[in-house]
Amino acid sequence: MTDIFLRSVTQEYASRIRLKERKRVIALGLFDSVHRGHRSIIDYTFRTAERLRMTPAILTFDNDFFGALGRRDKLIYTLHERVKILEDLGFSRENILVQPSDPAFLGMNGEEFVRYLLRLNAGAVVSGADYRFGRGGRWGAAELCRLTKEYGIAPFVCPLVKEWERKISSTDIREYLGIGEVKLAAHFLGRYFSVTGDVIHDRGVGKSFGLPTANIRVDSRKLLPADGVYDTRALIDGKALPAVTNIGSRPTFNEGKPAFETHIIDFYDDIYEKELTVVFIERIRGIFRFDSKEELKNQILSDIETVRRNLK
């Protein structure tokens, strides 16, 4: 009995050591939108990890990446949102490697970056053909292949995913969202665009005429679609519920302050401080000024009927 116990403990210990020392196949990129091109890199990472008997991992950045580069781009998905998507795609939390956007890291040269990958236990790396790294993005996929081979890391480069003779890019997706084309953005993302945040207290105007809205706290670095009213789904407590979402000012109340408010259809639970994800299906209309609260209420009721019809 004792021998069996000792043998099982030894086997368990040995398996932990093997797991600890197992090399990683690391997907490289910001992956701020996890679009279909990124999915190609991710899929290849999993296939390569299985073939090489390594662990699939992904290297991404925190929410300050664009700011650290002096750019004003908004994030299509925040780090919090991105991590949830990457977990859904199969990455374990400990293998979603988040690099702070500090000047020392962004100022690395090519060899310093590859030595950094060694410290992450990289046995192989996967990137897109347009991947750039190091100070000022000075190094590309060709240099990545050369340097990683010198340090014993196997490089793999995925071809760009194209549609309409143009590569799928986060830049284009930002433009689609910027004009309210959420359906087109969803086509290239490979999933509906969404916004996640905690529900906060607001003025409660909608509640005063029987149409309560959930207002969520949105990270200022997060990209939002163009102002308008949208057919959406509200993901709350494991349920996906039909909703109408308003983004923009409230001209009927002479308010210029931007709003992000969602009316969840036929739902009246208290969800303050809970996390809510709003999934954008289609833009219904623009933002208009109404002469009275009654006219606004009637328009919202019409928007709700539009969502109900779309559900069918």
Order of strands across the main sheet: 8-9-12-11-10-13
Terminal CA distance reads 64 Å
What is the helix fraction of residues, given as a range? 25-40%
Number of domains: 2
CATH architecture assignment name of the largest domain = 3-Layer(aba) Sandwich
The H-level CATH homologous superfamily of the largest domain, spelled out, is HUPs
CATH class of the largest domain: Alpha Beta
- Average pLDDT across residues? 89
Which strand-content bin applies to the residues? 25-35%
What are the salient characteristics of this protein?
single chain, 312 residues, alpha/beta, Rossmann fold, Elongation Factor Tu (Ef-tu), domain 3, 6-stranded antiparallel barrel, 5-stranded parallel sheet, 11 helices, 13 strands, disordered N terminus
Describe the structure.
By secondary structure, this protein is an alpha/beta fold. It has two domains: 21-167, HUPs (Rossmann fold, 3-Layer(aba) Sandwich), CATH 3.40.50.620; 192-311, Elongation Factor Tu (Ef-tu), domain 3 (Beta Barrel), CATH 2.40.30.30. 37% of the residues lie in helices and 27% in strands. It contains eleven helices and 13 strands. The chain has helices at 2-21, 36-52, 65-68, 79-88, 103-106, 110-119, 141-150, 170-178, 182-189, 205-208, 293-311; strands spanning 24-28, 55-61, 96-99, 122-128, 154-158, 162-163, 166-167, 194-200, 214-216, 228-236, 239-250, 255-264, 275-285. The strands form three sheets. Strands 8-9-12-11-10-13 form a six-stranded antiparallel beta barrel. Strands 3-2-1-4-5 form a five-stranded parallel β-sheet, with helices on both faces. Strands 6-7 form a two-stranded antiparallel ribbon. The longest helix has 20 residues, at 2-21. It is elongated, with a radius of gyration of 24 Å. Mean pLDDT is 89; it is low at 1-19.
